[in-house]
Amino acid sequence: MDPVQVLELGLDMKNQYYMAMDVDATECRAMERDNRGFRSRGLTLHSDEAMDQVDGTTRVGAGFIIRRSNGGFLCAAGRKMQCCASVEEAELRALVWALVYCDKEHIILTNIYLDNQWINCQAIDFCPRETNRTAHWIAQTAKRMVDEMIEWKDLSELPVLIQKAVDNDRNMFLSQEG
Q1: Nearest to 83 by CA among 1, 27, 13
Q2: Counting CB atoms within 10 angstroms of each CB, which of 94, 118, 119, 133 has the fewest?
């Protein structure tokens, strides 16, 4: 997929978000501009991808975590993805997969965070990698999995390394939200 196709995918995703929210794009941009300093305290999605090459084969994984308004754990999932032409494409594919998951589980999000500043969409907020480690660790785990997908709905089921990232991310994210 070339960069133009990735951008078109991102714009289509943005338009679908506006349609799902039943708000026209002009009204949505005005609301976002007026409320830049306001953070709703509902469910938040942190999504990420991980990509590397091993013996000439590209491995790609997607991961996300959904947090409650207090930063607590709601659920998380990871999955293998097909090879992507760029990090941006992988990031967008990971996000689309996470949003489809939320739709199937009837999870209504108030905030979406990515650690990729290249994706410029008013509906998505940038967060530093330090506050997105859980999603990144899940994506790292997913690209090495035998199974296609794994999900966790209980914090105690997470691997210890990811549990530590959940706690660390929560503390850092809440301190930045102030």
Answers
A1: 1
A2: 118
How does pLDDT run across 96-137, given as a tens digit for each residue? Answer: 999 999 999 999 898 888 887 766 666 788 887 777 889 999
Question: Phi and psi for 64 in degrees, rounded to 5?
Answer: -150, 160
* Tokens read off for 109: 């999000």
Q: What is the pLDDT of residue 74?
A: 93
What's the confidence (pLDDT) of residue 115?
83
pLDDT at 84: 80
DSSP SS3 for 64 = strand
Mean per-residue pLDDT, 24-32: 50
Residue 159 belongs to domain with CATH number: 3.30.420.10
Q: Give, as one character, the DSSP assignment of residue 108.
A: P
Name every residue whose Cβ is closer than 8 Å to that of residue 87 and which is 6 or more positions away in sequence. 49, 51, 116
Residue 162 amino acid letter:
I
Domain that holds residue 141: 3-177
Q: What is the total count of domains within the chain?
A: 1
Report the amino acid identity of residue 178: G
Among 44, 43, 76, residue whose Cα is nearest residue 61: 76
CB 85 within 8 A of CB 104: no
